[in-house]
Design goal:
Blueprint lengths: L28 H30 L6 H23 L5 H9 L8 H22 L16 H24 L8 H20 L5 H11 L5 H23 L5 H6 L13
Family: Belongs to the MIP/aquaporin (TC 1.A.8) family.
Main location: membrane
Organism: Momordica charantia (Bitter gourd)
């Protein structure tokens, strides 16, 4: 989720997993609340991240590249904690599709979630273009800065990394769920730090599509539509292959140095 060609930003995604309520359907109040949460959450995610890019370009780099990376990581963390308990805080079609493929999200809700995410991103990008006009009107989307192949591979890898972390902290009951927002936000920050200058570190089709629609800049957009989806699906599937174990929880925690036993000693 970062802008290439000298300035970067990250995105964002993502993301706690919320299981479908069997009593709810696509026209229920709870489902509508989920969609509103996804629109609002994606809006503020994209607005804050892209604003850091536009302001940095408009003020001769006062925010700096590390500052942009931190902005993306922080806004992801904040929004996950804000609405994760309502919609799951996907904010990212890649995450939604990956959850659906791994049977952790109902397919019937995927189209509405994706539309809500793209709508939030487009509204945020449109707001920024209205606010920053004239000399301050800078494209806040993602563009490949080198070869398309390099961009595709990097976007695949960083989205794989993001979804692998999301799957671990947000879907595995052995993980410390309260730290999900912090872990996901930190992953986005790290990805933007090293991938932002090359690909824009999108990791999110909605993050790239919103500004592309507003600024009518579609160069290399197909990469940001396909690579993150494939990366997220692969990350989720790989985590699922290591999730299952016959070991009891007590035996698992003995090998985890960051967990402590009941007597207070390191496990």
């Amino acid at each position: 989720m970062a802008q290439s060609s000298g300035s970067s930003n990250g995105h964002h995604s993502v993301s706690l997993n919320v299981k479908d309520d069997p009593a709810a359907d696509c026209v229920s109040v709870p489902f509508i609340q989920k969609l509103i949460a996804e629109v609002v959450g994606t809006y503020f995610l994209i607005f804050a991240g892209e604003a850091s890019v536009v302001v940095n370009l408009s003020t001769d780099g006062i925010i700096t590249f590390p500052g942009i990376s931190i902005a993306w990581g922080l806004v992801v963390m904040v929004m996950v904690y804000s609405v994760g308990h309502i919609s799951g805080a996907h904010f990212n079609p890649s995450v939604t599709i990956a959850f659906a493929i791994t049977k952790r999200f109902p397919w019937k809700e995927v189209p509405a979630f994706v539309v809500a995410q793209v709508l939030g991103s487009t509204l945020a990008s449109g707001t920024l273009r209205l606010i920053f006009s004239g000399k301050q009107d800078h494209f806040a989307g993602t563009l490949p800065s080198d070869s398309y192949l390099q961009t595709f591979v990097i976007e695949f890898i960083i989205t794989f990394y993001l979804m692998f972390v999301v799957s671990g902290v947000a879907t595995d009951n052995r993980a410390i769920g309260e730290l999900a927002g912090l872990a996901v936000g930190a992953t986005v920050l790290l990805n933007v730090m090293f991938a932002g200058p090359i690909t824009g570190a999108s990791m999110n089709p909605a993050r790239s599509l919103g500004p592309a629609i507003v600024w009518k800049q579609f160069k290399g957009l197909w990469i940001y539509m396909i690579a993150p989806v494939l990366g997220a699906i692969s990350g989720a599937l790989v985590y699922n292959t290591i999730r299952f174990t016959d070991k009891p929880l007590g035996e698992i925690t003995k090998s985890a140095s960051f967990l402590r036993s009941r007597n207070g000693s390191s496990s």
